[in-house]
Recover the amino acids of this structure.
C-alpha cells in the first residue's frame, strides 16, 4: 500500500493556530464508517450520538514542559532538548537541536543552572540518551526550566498552556497532547455520565514520534515509534464486560485506540498491563476492541490518517476530509473533530 494513497491537499490557512474559547464549541463531522454518510454538528452535540451503556475510553496522560532551551556548558552555544522517553530517575531519551553539538560527553546547562545534562549515547533516529543533574524533584525543576512543546505546525504563541491539556489530564509523561480529548469539558463529561455512559481512563504517553512523517513509499516498510502505556485491571474489566454484553467501545483519540488494540489478546480480551506499544494500524487491520472513534483531522500521509482509514475506510475518510476542507473546518491539534460512527 502506497503512502501517496493517503495524501490530500490542505490550504495552510485551515491549520488552527489557537484553540476556541469554549472547548466543546468546535465543529464535529460525523462519518458513518459503513455507508460513508456525513453529518455536520457541534462537538457538544456528541452526547446525542451515545447510547446508554456505551463505554468511552479516555487517555489521561498529561503533557510535561518537555522543551528545554539552554546552552553548552562553558560556552554561549545554544541547544534545544525535547524530552521523549524517561529511562530512569536521571536518564532520558531526547531529541536535540542542533544535533551536531550534542555529541557523547558534551555537557549542557538549562534554567540558569538549575538543570544540567550530559550526553551519554546516540540512538535510533539520531536521538540522544542524556543524564540530568539537579537538586530536588525533577518534575519541579522541569516546571521552572521547561516549556510546553507545541506541534511544529503551530507557529503562534499559546496564551494559556492549560488549553494544551485535557481537563482530565493526570499522569505526567507526554511530549504532545492527546488532542481529540481537548474538546471535552467537565460539564459535558458529567452529562455523559448522567446519561449512563461508562467513562474509562487509560494512559499512553504521546511521544514526538507521533509527528514523524512516513518516509517509505510502501507504508508496510515504515518503522513505527513506540510509546509507553498503562491499562489498569479495573479499566480492562470494565471494557471486557461492555464487549461481552454487546455495548459499544468508543475510543477518544488514536492514542486510546492504540492502547486498546495493542494491549488486547487475539480474542479482543484486555488485561491489566503496562509497557511499550509500537502497533501500526493501517487499512486491512481487523479491530478487536474499538467500535467507534473520536478524533481530530490528521496530517496527510501520516500514520494517524492511516489508522482512521483502517477503521472507516480510505475512500470514506478522504471524502470526509475533502468535504471538511470545502466547509472550512479547522485542522490538526487545535482544530475541529470527527466522530467515526456506525
Amino acid at each position: 500500500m502506497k503512502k501517496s494513497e493517503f495524501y490530500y491537499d490542505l490550504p495552510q490557512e485551515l491549520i488552527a493556530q489557537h484553540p476556541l474559547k469554549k472547548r466543546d464549541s468546535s465543529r464535529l463531522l460525523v462519518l458513518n464508517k459503513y455507508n460513508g454518510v456525513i453529518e455536520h454538528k457541534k462537538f457538544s452535540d456528541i452526547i446525542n450520538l451515545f447510547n446508554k451503556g456505551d463505554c468511552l475510553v479516555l487517555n489521561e496522560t498529561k503533557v510535561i514542559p518537555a522543551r528545554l532551551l539552554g546552552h553548552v556548558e562553558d560556552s554561549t552555544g545554544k541547544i534545544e532538548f525535547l524530552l521523549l522517553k524517561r529511562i530512569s530517575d536521571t536518564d532520558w531519551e531526547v531529541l536535540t537541536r542542533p544535533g551536531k553539538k550534542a555529541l557523547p560527553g558534551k555537557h549542557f546547562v538549562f534554567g540558569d543552572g538549575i538543570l544540567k545534562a550530559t550526553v551519554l549515547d546516540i540512538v535510533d533516529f539520531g536521538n540522544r540518551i542524556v543524564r540530568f543533574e539537579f537538586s530536588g524533584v525533577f518534575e519541579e525543576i522541569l516546571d521552572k526550566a521547561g516549556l510546553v512543546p507545541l506541534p511544529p505546525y503551530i507557529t503562534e504563541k499559546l496564551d494559556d498552556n492549560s488549553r494544551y491539556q485535557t481537563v482530565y489530564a493526570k499522569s505526567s509523561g507526554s511530549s504532545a497532547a492527546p488532542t481529540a480529548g481537548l474538546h471535552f469539558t467537565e460539564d459535558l463529561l458529567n452529562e455523559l455520565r448522567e446519561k449512563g455512559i461508562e467513562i474509562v481512563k487509560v494512559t499512553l504517553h504521546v511521544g514526538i514520534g507521533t509527528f514523524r512523517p512516513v518516509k517509505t513509499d510502501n507504508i508496510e516498510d515504515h518503522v513505527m515509534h513506540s510509546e509507553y502505556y498503562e491499562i489498569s485491571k479495573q479499566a480492562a474489566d470494565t471494557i471486557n464486560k461492555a464487549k461481552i454484553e454487546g455495548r459499544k467501545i468508543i475510543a477518544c483519540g488514536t492514542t486510546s485506540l492504540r492502547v486498546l488494540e495493542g494491549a488486547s489478546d487475539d480474542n479482543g480480551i484486555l488485561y491489566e498491563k503496562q509497557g511499550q506499544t509500537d502497533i501500526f494500524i493501517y487499512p486491512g487491520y481487523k479491530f478487536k476492541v474499538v467500535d467507534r472513534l473520536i478524533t481530530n483531522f490528521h496530517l496527510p500521509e501520516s500514520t494517524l490518517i492511516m489508522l482512521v482509514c483502517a477503521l472507516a475506510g480510505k475512500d470514506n475518510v478522504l471524502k470526509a476530509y475533502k468535504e471538511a476542507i470545502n466547509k472550512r473546518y479547522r485542522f490538526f491539534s487545535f482544530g475541529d473533530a470527527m466522530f467515526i460512527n456506525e
